[in-house]
Amino acid sequence: xxxxxxxxxxxIVEMMKDDGFDASKDYVRVGVKxxxxxxxxxxxxxxxxxxxxDKVFEDNAVRIAVEKKSFLYxxxxxxxxxxxxxxxxxxxxxxNASRTCGCGESFSL
Length: 109
Description:
The chain has 109 residues and is an alpha+beta fold. It has two helices and nine strands.
């Protein structure tokens, strides 16, 4: 399962609305790709449709779509949002990551 904190949920719903998406029907697509300073990097985007290999989760009014192969790296992850002057934006708290980079956008196992 992938969880979404309350602060991340509020920001996602706001951003989806601004971009013409509806949080009650559309999805936040979370994925992993090769790259970044630690070897793997996170991807976040909005999507209106599901693929045949997607797993779907819902937490705090956010529907999350994850392709099965990315889910292997993301199981148990919580998506959080940190705003303010020293905030980083979206942060992945991934229990599977053995090492993360300073910016929090990439990791390794």
